[in-house]
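hiii, so i know i said id send this last week but things got crazy w the move. better late than never?? heres the sequnce for the chain we talked about at the cafe, plus the structure i predicted for it. fair warning i was half asleep when i ran it
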Amino acid sequence: MGCASHQRPELVPSSARLQMSGTGREVYTAQDDGMVYVYDKATDHLLWSGQVLRGQTVVVDPQTNQITLNGTIVSNQAQIAGSRGIDVYYDPGRFERPAAAGARLSSPGLNGNGDTTVATPGSVTVQPPPVTVTPSVTVAPATRPIP
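okay and structure toks below
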């Protein structure tokens, strides 16, 4: 840290602060709810970004090429070089709270018959037509009503 040649990656917002930088297995525990950005300086790529809750731990492991959030693998697609370093940024201002448990959404429902969809904390609601989640993953509408 403090290196004059260090530049913030374009995909990391200016409000995010560098929390740690290292060349091996890095462990970051969120001090509050927010967004974490994991950047690999050797490949000049943002490896992962995601929301975290206070106390959750993000582990970046170049040996296994995995990034985990509280023990759950959130990324294992990228080769993590680690030789030039991994930067972990944290931004408390980017956190979006999920809908309250049982909150009713005004949507036609997944089966398109006018049912009301119920949101639960941490859930994702997908509505027809198919929604592209990432360039490599497409989510299609349910083929039968969800109980």
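btw The chain has two domains: 17-94, 103-139. thought thatd interest u
miss u guys!!
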